[in-house]
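User: Fold this; tokens only.

Assistant: Input:
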Amino acid sequence: MYSSETKIRVRYAETDQMNVVYHGNYAQYFEVGRVEAIRQLGFSYKDLEETGIIMPVIEWNAKFLRPARYDDLLTVRTILQEWPKDHRIRFRQEVYNEDGKLLTVGDILLYFLKSATMEKTPMPREMEEKLRPYFKPDDDRAANS
């Protein structure tokens, strides 16, 4: 399992009339978390794109448990619980406030696609090498069976 954390400060423009983070902004928070999680591996999203592969979001689900408000410092935890299977990679994402209370949870499915043709493709070897130390040897065999 691979996990990383990213801090995000809520900006005024991200809140609604109730002084609560507008739900649509969580898509951006989750994206920041995923991009930074990949960067923390030592492999950036830019590196990924330079290999000719993109990762579009295919599914995005979120559950909002508690509100985040203007100027809150949020922690976005990005978790890769299972080895990416075929052309799919699924992230669990959690947003916490400064008190450590869970505010929002998300489940995001992305595909690895060749940018030139939009065809499904396996995870690039460079990314696989960076993720391998976080998973047991049997994790990818179990995921592909």
